[in-house]
Predict the structure.
Amino acid sequence: MADEKEKLTIVMFNGDLDHALAGFTLATTAASMGMEVSMFFTYWGLNIIKKNEGKIRSKGLMKKMLNFMNRGGSKRLKLSHFNMFGLGTWMMKKLMKEVNYPSLDEMITMAQEMGVKLVPCSTTCGIMGISDDDAFREQIGSLAGAAFFLNEARQSKVTLFI
Amino acid sequence: MADEKEKLTIVMFNGDLDHALAGFTLATTAASMGMEVSMFFTYWGLNIIKKNEGKIRSKGLMKKMLNFMNRGGSKRLKLSHFNMFGLGTWMMKKLMKEVNYPSLDEMITMAQEMGVKLVPCSTTCGIMGISDDDAFREQIGSLAGAAFFLNEARQSKVTLFI
Amino acid sequence: MADEKEKLTIVMFNGDLDHALAGFTLATTAASMGMEVSMFFTYWGLNIIKKNEGKIRSKGLMKKMLNFMNRGGSKRLKLSHFNMFGLGTWMMKKLMKEVNYPSLDEMITMAQEMGVKLVPCSTTCGIMGISDDDAFREQIGSLAGAAFFLNEARQSKVTLFI
């Protein structure tokens, strides 16, 4: 690996607002520092890049239930702690606005504009029945598996599991 | 480190079904790609490699309580989200079967057959009173501490804390 | 990066007793092995290095509420699992004492004496209104942002997100 590029690879496993904000703050900062950034979304992390509108079509009762309860979309995420039936999450968003911090939704768009690669995990999608092309926001990369992630990771200076 | 081997080291800190599946999917995929893989189990992560049968013998009321409530075994793990008194976990397992995805138990056996090293953390075992040799599945490596893990990690291309 | 030092960088994102103990066990072990260690505290992780005495002064009702409920201090942290209204956390501390394992508070002091750098995240502090200089324990480094962390991380052999 003679001319290894400075690269950051992140697995987004958790789908809470706080994990998402931490991930995208690191991703956009790294991109602005000239690093190449890949984010790989698996398990609950898939919720972060689901569409805010519409719903996911899937076949079978269990998949329908799972995808209904686990609907996702950057605007629906909650804090992993201190959600307090929505109050904590609402306060957090309010405080972010007060200091002019971008919303998660704006950060995702910003990351995409900066060239950060957003890749959904094919295995989780397969198990949860998210076969639908329009489950995710626009300009999301094609589904890929663990081998793809590991290949990215072993070319990276820094790899994080969030 | 002139001829550094391509190595993956994982700390398994969480003991939920989803974390365990993510860890073993990465471990087995990396092994199939020719990487050397070590997994270091600490705190709740120890539950993943505990035996499914029998119980852990430990001395003292508190240790007995802790080990009873925290019984572990790959077949007893629950999802970290959407467990819903067992319903979510049951649905997840069912959906995995539908697409012929191996169960966690099968994946652990597979990882062992592929040469993935599974190492329990000696410090956690010491504190929780898991002194018993037969607490863990067969062919688990000897207990080792943080220094062991750090040595593995600094020879690794990729290190993850799951 | 011709003479890259053996360095460990840790993001402390979670603020539970178990995550804190895992982080500081790794940090002090790495320092004793001659590694250079930086710990970067963000989100709930900030609670770990907050003062045990006194309270955080902040302006505005929401910030006051958030900082009251999220008071922190190494002696107030709880386990992420099996807290059981404090019983599990109390048992854990008791068991640690039985095997003469240092308390979290002692480990943080020890880490500082060994030269481990403890750095609070400026962005989280800004959003949560922790502007107060005396929110944190003594000898904590100045606030720094994601760019600081990424710079440390890309010079590190091992980087963990805990």
